[in-house]
Amino acid sequence: MSTPTIVLVHGFWGGAAHWAKVIVELDRRGHRGLRAVELPLTSLADDATRTRDLVRQIDGPVLLVGHSYGGAVITEAGDLPNVVGLVYVAAFAPDAGESPGQITEEHPPAAIANIEPDADGRLWVKPDLFAESFAQDLPADETLVMAVTQKAPLGTTFGDTVSEPAWRHKPAWYQVSTDDRMIHPDNQRRMAARLQPRSTVELAASHASLASQPVAIADLVEEAARATAG
User: Fold this and answer.
1) What is the pLDDT of residues 159-196, one digit of tens each?
2) What is the tally of structural domains in the chain?
3) Non-local CB neighbours of 214 within 8 Å, separated by 6+ positions
4) What one-character DSSP code corresponds to residue 107?
5) Rounded average pLDDT over 11-31
6) What phi and psi values does residue 114 have, to the nearest 5 degrees?
7) Residue 142: its pLDDT value, please?
8) Lower CB density within 10 Å: C or N end of the chain?
9) What is the rounded distance in angstroms from the CA atom of residue 167 to the CA atom of residue 76?
10) 120 in a domain, yes or no?
11) Please, what is the average pLDDT of the chain?
12) DSSP assignment of 118-170
């Protein structure tokens, strides 16, 4: 049986290291084919290209796992033939012609006022409000590191639209964070329902569910990996 390589895709305001606890948990369970993409967060096209470049270097099936904006990236980049499934972790899952910004406007999240632009057109979560906005269920030392090391996206990326969503052609799984203040839980539920996923998991978690509940996230990823093993 060919187990897919798991490729983890981060979102806005973080990097590949946001997956640290999930990586450790999956490795503990015997998953050795783990990769994590570091996105430039300059445009959906750039981020999808970076992801596709990595996926093309992998010999065999790939399971893409996206958190937050990373969900839009795997939606756009998941069209490659060796991608066998998609896992969305409190993530955007846009349809064709739809952007993360459009989805956000439908149900603005609780922390939307805590995001501010800089002079270079990048958007930041106000550092002193990062914990309550992004990861209110994590210890203070962890949220401090996240706030200080946050990776700000270009604001224009919010308006970038998906061309042909991979979830229309590939099996998908979705995790909803019911206490999310960055992507409204109702938006997550609507996107999840539209995917017609193999399973949907709701967790009483912040936007940073990948860090606050890594065991539950690893459970979902492992379920998807088993279902897509050849």
Assistant:
1) 999 999 999 999 999 999 999 999 999 999 999 999 99
2) 1
3) 21, 22, 24, 25
4) S
5) 97
6) -95, 10
7) 97
8) N
9) 9
10) no
11) 97
12) -TTSBEEE-GGGHHHHH-TTS-HHHHHHHHHH--PPBGGGGGPPBSS-GGGTS
pLDDT value at position 1? Answer: 62
Cα 169 from Cα 142, distance rounded (Å):
37
Q: At what angle do helices 70-77 and 44-56 cross, to 10 degrees?
A: 60
For residue 121, being part of any structural domain is answered with no
Question: Do the Cβ atoms of 15 and 37 come closer than 8 Å?
Answer: no
Residue 131 lies in a domain: no
DSSP letters along 25-82, please? HHHHTT---EEEE----S-HHHHHHHHHHHHHTSSS-EEEEEETTHHHHHHHHTTSTT
pLDDT digit string (tens) for 50-69?
Answer: 999 999 999 999 999 999 99
Per-residue confidence (pLDDT) for residue 109, from 0 to 100: 97
| C-alpha of 220 from chain center | 13
One-letter amino acid for residue 39 of the chain = L
Q: How far is CA 218 from CA 5, 145, 211, in A?
A: 14, 23, 11
**34: CATH:** 3.40.50.1820
* DSSP secondary structure letter of residue 96: B
Q: Which long-range contacts (CB under 8 A, 24 or more apart) does 32-38 make?
A: 33/3, 33/4, 33/5, 33/6, 34/5, 34/6, 34/8, 35/5, 35/6, 35/7, 35/8, 36/7, 36/8, 36/9, 36/10, 37/7, 37/8, 37/9, 37/10, 37/73, 38/10
Domain that holds residue 204: 5-108+152-228
